[in-house]
Give the backbone structure.
Amino acid sequence: MITLLTGMLATAVLAGGVLALAALGEVLAERVGVTNLGVEGLMALGAVTAVMTVSSVSSPWVGLLVAGLVGAAGGMVFAFGAVVMRANQVLCGLATTFMGLGLSTALGHNYAGQPVTTTFGHVSVPVLSSIPVIGPALFGQNILIVPIYVLLPALVHFVMFRTRHGLNMRAVGENPAAADAAGIPVMAMRFWYVTLGGAMAGLAGGYLTLTYVPVWSEGMVAGRGWIALALVIFAGYRPVIVTLSALLFGLVTALSFVGQAHNWPIDPAFLNMLPYLGTMAFIIVPVVVWHRMRRVMAAPAALAQPYYRDVR
Amino acid sequence: MAARAFQRLPSAPAGRILVLRLAAIVLSLFIIAGVLALSGHSPVTLAELILRSTLGSRFGLEDLALFMCPLLLTGAAVTVCGTIGLWNIGAEGQFYAGAIAATGVALGLHGPAVVLLPIMTIAGILGGMAWITVPTLARAYAGVNEIITTLLLNFIASLLTYYLTTGPWRDRISGAQVSTQRLPVAIPEMWGIVHWGFPVAIVIVVGLALVLSRTRWGYEIRIGGANPEAARYAGIPVRLRIISVMLLSGALAGLAGMFEVAGTVHRLQGGMANNFGYLGIVVAVLARGSCLNVIPAALLMALILDSGIVMQTQQLSASVVLAITGLILFMIAIGDELAHYRPVASTTPKGKAS
């Protein structure tokens, strides 16, 4: 039982980390009022470029860096359309996903199916990793787990809710006209946070192929970008809650793994549906059960609305 | 203050949209040609090859019609949803659901095609509607974002298809992988390999255009999309309209799946939806909310898919088509926004005699 629980939590932490990174990036973009539906495509690009990089440079850090840079570049392309040109955000996002998925498959053609040998290896933090159940999961896997689950969300939370800059940032997402009148550079704010969100989607893709699933194949992102988008809504656009829900979500994924490993009498296809069914339940059940949730977890008021200075 | 040289109009004139879209497509083609040239393919020979094997040959034209058929229906599915201001990103899943339901009927019942085909059609429609039911109710009664819920169901439908075609419904006769056996009935063909689903799809799209523009229901849908508050104030039951529109949207996508399985592929296969659901979004965007425009939009999209076949023969992976579609969609999104701007006669500073 203990080994089962330990194994499940370890898988959950790994699987959830991918989502946590991507979803935290999307929180940044949505808090300044931009929905980036391109996360799925940017993750695919990050995943494939990380694999391509480590096949010639044997350092996972360089692979992760390249994945992040590629994600940032993709985020900039999206931001050019959705923020600078003020085109429809849903369309630009879908277009980014199409481009990302198509390009990543074309780029990764020669790398498909080959196991990645350069990955983030196991790191055991001396005392902490011997804590039963949670120790091996949190401190006995790879070096990125603590940054992803603790440092980054804490940093984003602090900046967003405890600094003047964070207040400005939220103002841009709630009421860009007022923010503009107060002298906050709305466009620059949106552009750079969307780019940062794209970089984190790229990192999430790189993290996917450098730790959790060390092989590139077409369609391997498998909707994780969309799940990350759903988590952002579920978590009410809050950085700490989004990270926790990514972990919760990782548990759902781990459940399907455990089921397959222990030969539960359920077809793997149905176990593989669990993450998607779980996400559906995550975003529907809370609003139905607890009506006040809709107000408490409301989206930024100017979400998905382009800002025109001269049109009121 | 310097005078602004451009003014943003609340809605863009159709002429400007057309011009800017052509510019967007031409620019996309130049970018694609540049990338192809850099990767060692000759864009000119490729373009010639594409033109010859799509519009310039009987087979190319037949393929074009076969590609158009599902795109017309999924494009219409996304368009009707868009009329009331909602995005159905789940046409892919509803397509699978329709295909699964129709296949279930074909494999489970026995009888002449005259009897089976109508039942399969109804099953396909109901399958598509069933697949969008949960997102519909969640949207109408709890305000849950339909983009995410409809999309997540695509993955579930795809996994379900995979399960059926490798498990209970796998091909036991010829042993084809991830596929059912050949269905006992098929939609009759009318021109080469083009089946009767194609003209039916066109009739449906035209009929929808009439319903949306000429009936009370269509009017209420359009008002509900343009201004939900005003619609509610005017006594239009917006919630019921949302439900009916979303179910109709699912029905259209389900029908697309039925046509594809009974007319084109003749088997239920894993991956058979072939992105038709997602490309339906592109078609709907190109159509700008008008069902009649879905026809030329589906034609353009079918042309792109048809050229994808040629590219595959030239050692370019099929995924390139998806990237190209994305690029064109991106450029068109920008072009549509730019079409809102009208150059204003540059206002010379006051007091300066002209």
The radius of gyration of chain A is 19 Å. Chain A has 13 helices and no strands. Residues 2-123+132-296 of chain A form a domain with the ABC transporter involved in vitamin B12 uptake, BtuC fold (CATH 1.10.3470). Chain A has a mean pLDDT of 89.
